[in-house]
Amino acid sequence: MPLIIMCGFPCSGKSKRAQELRNYLENRGKTVYLASDESSSLDRNTVYSASANEKEARGLLKSAVERLISRDDVVILDSLNYIKGYRYELYCVAKAHKTTHCIVHCDTSKEICSEWNKTRESKYNDEILDALVMRFEPPDSRNRWDSPLFVIQVDDDLPFESIYDALINRVPPPPNQATQPQPLSATNFLYELDKITQEIVTVLINSQRTFVPGDHITVPGTSEKISFTKHTTFFSALNNRRISNFGHLGALAQRGLTVSVCTRKSRFISQVTA
Prior knowledge:
This is Protein KTI12 homolog. The chain has helices at 14-27, 44-47, 51-68, 84-96, 110-118, 126-135, 160-168, 189-207, 234-255, 261-273, and strands spanning 3-8, 32-36, 74-78, 101-106, 149-152, 216-218, 225-227.
């Protein structure tokens, strides 16, 4: 299920909106997880007083999202999320898990945020609050990682149905190909390998009946031609075929790579004609 990224100035009402969303989604039968600074036991003034502390805190929150996100549950990240590069990272997390996401931007003025901050027990220092407001990078719906974007003013009601539709009824973007595990080989790898090498052995042995040293023989399935310098017996070719097959399998197991069919043919041919 999707990822909801809350975004806004400090003390802009993000936690209240996040709780409203959680209640609504749970009433719709969804399992909802809430990740926030408080749930990660992060002290605001300590975290945002130094860039190193802030970077570590973002890493903790991102790890929490990666741990909780799935295709069945909703995750709400309640934090400042004021850096567009960080929002892009979260977008990539949702994309890699083949699920949707959205941004809920609590667009509250600095003056109101300052007033609300003064009434809280755990409040920001004035210097830190001003610095965070100055560094804030507002989301832009033209960016794919900031879309769909829901901008909420102080007196607005949350568009629950629109958010639900954007998250649940929208097709998630396809994950990047580079992040998906690639199969080491086709399921019929052994059969194809055995068939190819058997065909080559048969053609080479039959061709020896009429060839003279220096003649070129076309290898089936390729554009390569080989020249025999000595007579090769059927059992010798069969033995080279067996060694070639097991050798390629061993290389695949050790290196975790898939060797192309053409490469296998070339190596096998060199063994047969050696």
